[in-house]
Amino acid sequence: MKIGSLVLENRLILAPMAGITQLPFRRLAREAGCALVVTEMVSANGLVHGTKKTVELLVSHPGERPLSTQIFGADPVIMKEAAQIVQSAGADILDVNLGCSVRRVIRQGAGAALMREPERLEAVLKAIRSAVSLPLTVKMRTGWEPSGEQAIRTARIAEYCGVDAVAIHPRTAIQGFSGRADWSLIALLKKSVSIPVIGNGDIQKPDDVLRMQRETGCDGIMIGRASIGNPWIFAQAIDLIHSSPPRRPDLPKRLHTVLRYIEYSVNHFGESRAVPIMRSRLGWFTKGLPHSSRFRAAIARLKTRQDMVDAVQAYFGYVQTAARH
Ligand SMILES: Cc1cc2nc3c(=O)[nH]c(=O)nc-3n(C[C@H](O)[C@H](O)[C@H](O)COP(=O)(O)O)c2cc1C
Question: Which SS3 state, helix, strand or coil, does residue 209 take?
């Protein structure tokens, strides 16, 4: 798959998820085989004002490349400046958020609000396109009503403004995560524009990737929630694409992944910030394993990096022994 001048290894993409697709998580997803990772949404205002926490979100690592950085905002001048900052920081793709429907984003006219303001949208995309040379994408929802007309109009505006690919999560802005993603809109969008279309929404297991591709004809497939604590979904989907049986992550592989997640998090956040973050995350990787609730209770008390490593090794050792008996 190609996005502008960038050739991707395969068609699988990690979806942007605020508070989740931070650098350590993105590295795991990339190592598991997805071709592209996306940052969480980054405030264009925050970038332009140099807000420390926002600028930190641009930090990258060679192990996760290529990286798409997603920005949100509504002011063409600010968005243009933010796009230049993202380009200077070395991102491989710039993505514009047209799908977020949380109140603080909508109130500023950003995210999904731009889908009902075609003139502003055009101004924003043209301003960005004129300012940066890196491949440009947008990620949107169905819009504000279920017909999908706003999505098609938005994609056509994007194509006209020089956007290189469009991703869609086909739920309305009002729907949140309720109901089901309407994949028929992905198929309709694919017929409506000639730039690549990335389908997203409700991929729960590896074979859903094949089903989405078959049912919609989309070029790329983006996976969000199903990859949380389960980066192996990418490797398994790649196996299926190659008509091979999907590799199952055995216990040593899971353990190795969790230990890498701890290492990447400590390297990125520093130990004192990483420990509280990891307390709520290590449990993601043990869902479905025996006594995982006991493990989750234990990790809630961890204080240091070594405590985390010890707890994870002890738990996986226990599961391995239990499996032999
Ligand atoms: C916790 C969480 C945070 C999200 N943050 C973002 C975001 O920052 N930018 C964005 O475009 N979409 C965001 N999304 C939406 C996802 O990218 C994706 O469109 C949605 O989860 C549907 O895909 P899935 O069914 O594979 O999870 C978020 C979703 C979740 C669950």
Answer: helix
Which atom in ligand 1 lies closest to the alpha carbon of residue 202? 25
What's the whole-model pTM score?
0.97
145-182 pLDDT, tens digit each? 999 999 999 999 999 999 999 999 999 999 999 999 99
* Closest by CA position to 173, among listed 64, 97, 79, 230: 97
Q: Are residues 230 and 258 in the same domain?
A: no
Q: Please identify which residue in the block is written with the tokens 């996976």.
A: 223
* 127 and 215 belong to one structural domain: yes
Q: What is the rounded CA–CA span in Å between residue 148 and residue 151?
A: 5
3-state secondary structure of 98: strand
* C-alpha to C-alpha distance for 83 and 89, rounded to whole angstroms: 10
Q: How far apart are CA 182 and CA 175, in angstroms?
A: 12
Identify which of 169, 178, 228, 230 to mutate to test ligand 1's pocket (most ligand atoms within 8 A of the CB).
169
Ligand 1 atom 1: residue of nearest CA: 17
What CATH number did the domain enclosing 233 receive? 3.20.20.70
pLDDT in tens, 205-237: 999 999 999 999 999 999 999 999 999 999 999
Per the structure, the complete domain to which residue 65 belongs is given by: 2-241
In the chain, alpha helices (H): 23-31, 44-48, 52-56, 76-88, 103-107, 118-131, 149-160, 183-192, 206-216, 232-241, 251-269, 271-279, 292-299, 305-324
246 inside domain = no
